[in-house]
Amino acid sequence: MMKVLLVNGSPHREGCTYTALREVVGVLEQQGIETELLWLGVKPVPGCMGCNACFKTGRCVVKDIVNEAIDRLDEYDGFVFGSPVHYAAAYGTMTSFLDRLFYAGGERLAFKPGAAVVSCRRAGSTASLDQLNKYFTINNMPLVSSQYWNMVHGFTPDQVREDKEGMQTMRGIGRNMAWLIKCIELGKEAGISLPEQEERVMTNFIR
User: Fold this and answer.
1) Is the pTM of this model over 0.85?
2) Residue 80: which H helix or E strand, with range?
3) 73 CB-near residues (< 8 Å, 6+ apart)
4) Rounded to an integer, what distance in angstroms lies between the CA atom of residue 174 and that of residue 155?
């Protein structure tokens, strides 16, 4: 059974971001894709300290929800990361979570489809979406889009549900995610391997 992890990066367990993600979940499950919804909660999630210990272990030295997620990355075929907009950026807890998740567990996320979802009252959505999409595009992950940018608008869950175009966009994410995951699975069955990767070259601009 193919499975997608959806991460609710809002401090509100069943707020606007949750409402958007639930719309994605409904379509994924209709398409025969198993889902799991992870709420990051309200406990502090420290940011990355740049200690690089995870290079040796594949896990972060801080023992919290990030490592819990890293330990289970192999279970999932795709990922959806949802966040509210705070000051035209993703919520701080979500940023800390993703910084450490990708730094320590990026290899286990690579080549799996990813989608970002943002929720805002009025503005800042495109800047936040751009921020979240950069995690995928630096990590060899196919980007799942929809008919419009992956965002909903509203100050309450009921207002988000009134955003008919936003809700339709969420359903599009679900359909496109399911389609892409199934295509990748069929490719594997046909003997198509993952793209060969060159040895990483790092270029510093100041030498």
Assistant:
1) yes
2) strand 78-86
3) 105, 108, 109
4) 23
The pair phi, psi for residue 5, each rounded to 5°, is -100, 125
pLDDT in tens, 77-123: 999 999 999 999 999 999 999 999 999 999 999 999 999 999 999 99
From the list 126, 131, 170, the residue with the least C-alpha distance to 22 is 170
**Contact 110/73 with Cβ under 8 angstroms?**
no
CA dist 1 and 148 (Å) reads 29
Centre a 10 Å sphere on the Cβ of residue 197 and count the other Cβ atoms it contains: 9
- Do 185 and 3 touch, CB atoms closer than 8 A? no
**Alpha helix locations (H) across the chain?**
16-30, 54-57, 65-70, 92-109, 125-137, 157-162, 164-189
Q: Give the separation between CA 73 and CA 164, rounded to whole angstroms.
A: 33
Name the phi and psi angles at 34, rounded to 5. Answer: -75, 145
pLDDT digits 0-9 by tens, 2-13: 999 999 999 999
Q: Which residues pair with 80 in a beta bridge?
A: 6, 115
Distance CA(133)–CA(138), nearest Å, equals: 9
Alpha-carbon torsion (46, 48, 49, 53), positive or negative: positive
* pLDDT for 207: 67
**Strand, helix or coil for residue 64:** coil
